[in-house]
Amino acid sequence: MLKFLKSTPAKFITILLVLQTVALYSSVRPESVPPSAPLASLPRNLGGWSLLREDAVDQETQEVLKADDLLFRFYKNPEGTRAASLFVAAFRSQRTGKSPHSPKNCLPGSGWSQLSSDLYTIHLDGGRQIAVNRYIVSHGEERSLVMYWYQSRDRVVADEFKAKFWVMADSLRYNRTDTALVRVVINITGQNEQEATDTAANFVQSFFKPLHNSLPA
User: Fold this and answer.
1) Range of the domain at 30
2) How far apart are CA 37 and CA 49, in angstroms?
3) Which listed residue, of 33, 170, 187, 214, carries a Cα 20 to 30 Å from 179's Cα?
């Protein structure tokens, strides 16, 4: 029994039950989410990285995500030698069943295979550190590095279960369930995973503060 209680299905059931309780408790109160700028207001130049292009999110993805705001951009580094994609899906509320979809669950359906995964620490200005998911994925001969996390208020969470916990905690304490899924993808050249990791971390450092300022405080 103890082993089952520590298992992933048991954790999922527990979270589901607590979410239902929170939903019943808070459904009578409209959420109080501070106003925020649209994601499109994110600067075209971010710490030396400059906008390469902005792509529209296809209708099928929009219908699956049901996000309140979406951003899908490609930036190039100051030298113009590397490009990175930035995808952000922002949700002002998760009470109506809307919630971020983990990128790792979308990989098989899009033809990508996961080769490895771990947590990676990124050092930001001011001495702050954030832990994000780092995945190495492949599609045929192509290999890419993916970093993603969940961001709300002044919090960055990599683990999906912990993200759900904080949604419940914020709902009870602050009457809000807003969050955002942030994903960065960069191609791996010459099998050099460390170079791709360093480049992706530098890109995150460049946009983290501007993005933070675009999300509800």
Assistant:
1) 2-214
2) 21
3) 187
